[in-house]
Amino acid sequence: MQLKDTNVNDEMQIISLDTVSDKYAFRLQEMGLREGSVIRVVQNAVFGGKVITSSAARYALDGKTAREIEVELVK
Question: Helix or strand or coil: residue 45?
Answer without folding.
Answer: coil
